[in-house]
Amino acid sequence: xxxxxxxxxxxxxxxxxxxxxxxxxxxxxxxxxxxxxxxxxxxxxxxxxxxxxxxxxxxxxxxxxxxxxxxxxxxxxxxxxxxxxxxxxxxxxxxxxxxxxxxxxxxxxxxxxxxxxxxxxxxxxxxxxxxxxxxxxxxxxxxxxxxxxxxxxxxxxxxxxxxxxxxxxxxxxxxxxxxxxxxxxxxxxxxxxxxxxxxxxxxxxx
Length: 206
Known about the structure:
Blueprint: E1 14-15, E2 37-38, H1 54-59, E3 63-64, E4 73-79, E5 87-93, E6 103-109, H2 112-130, E7 135-142, E8 152-159, E9 165-173, H3 176-180, E10 186-192, H4 194-202
Parallel strand pairs: 1-2
Antiparallel strand pairs: 3-4, 4-5, 5-6, 6-10, 7-8, 8-9, 9-10
């Protein structure tokens, strides 16, 4: 992973990667804000227009998250040429013409066995970065998309005491039938704002 030194006194950036994840500190502070993290050079809170033009964004399919409260957030994804990621995804708010990023996702196709190893590497690095403010929660479950329960996910969340999930690491192991249909095992990292985290907890998929 390439580390970019910003050389700004008492500030630091933490760059996440799926293959190699190393932290660069400009101070002895712990990471307490999602804006201190970047995926593919982008972070939560900035405009997607810094990455793609309005035309390119609008050309993408908007996948709205299901909610009983109606359409609020949607996801757009872009394939990229990057050794660390195959896709980056962004969660945006409906009718926001500034295209503010509320959550950013980096995804890499990787076999499940290797994914678990990389997940542990990323977890160890992020756990040091977050310190005691965000507590890791690890669990495994069947993938909700696969009704046959032949696919599974391994997840690590970093959660604050008020239930704010600042980051999530996910390994997905698709069942053989879904793999035959073109779905590939993958590793994904998610960073999210407090507003988006509350939405996912209280409104999405309800």
